[in-house]
């Protein structure tokens, strides 16, 4: 049997904490990773949908509330 390479990996970027934050007069989704707010690919997609009016902030906040909690 082969060793599982996943056991050696350290996931410093997980868990992520998503939130709607204010960036330059705009509400955007960002995630808290390694002691800073970043815009990952998930945030980028959601932010594009927010900008185009395809989803509302209430729906996004509902999605955020369903994500596993990460403390920081």
List keywords for this structure.
72 residues, alpha+beta, three-stranded antiparallel sheet, 2 helices, 25% strand, elongated
Explain what you see:
The chain has about 70 residues and is an alpha+beta fold. Helix content is about 30%, strand content about 25%. It contains two helices and three strands, in the order E-E-E-H-H. A three-stranded antiparallel β-sheet has the order 1-2-3, with helices on one face. Strand 2 and strand 3 form a beta hairpin. It is elongated, with a radius of gyration of 15 Å.
Beta strand count? 3
Low-confidence stretches: none
By helix and strand content, what is the structural category? alpha+beta
Number of helices: 2
**Secondary structure: helix percent:** 25-40%
N-to-C series of helices and strands: EEEHH
The span between the termini is: 38 Å
Spatial strand order of the main sheet: 1-2-3
Instruction: Using the alpha-carbon principal axes, give the shape.
Output: elongated
Rg over CA atoms: 15 Å
Rounded mean pLDDT score:
84
The proportion of residues in beta strands is: 25-35%
**Largest pleated sheet:** 3 strands, antiparallel
């Amino acid at each position: 049997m082969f060793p599982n390479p996943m056991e050696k990996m350290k996931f410093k970027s997980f868990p992520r904490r998503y939130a709607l934050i204010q960036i330059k007069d705009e509400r955007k989704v960002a995630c808290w990773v390694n002691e800073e707010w970043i815009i990952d690919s998930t945030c980028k997609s959601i932010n594009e949908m927010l900008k185009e009016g395809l989803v509302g902030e209430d729906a996004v906040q509902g999605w955020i509330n369903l994500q596993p909690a990460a403390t920081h």
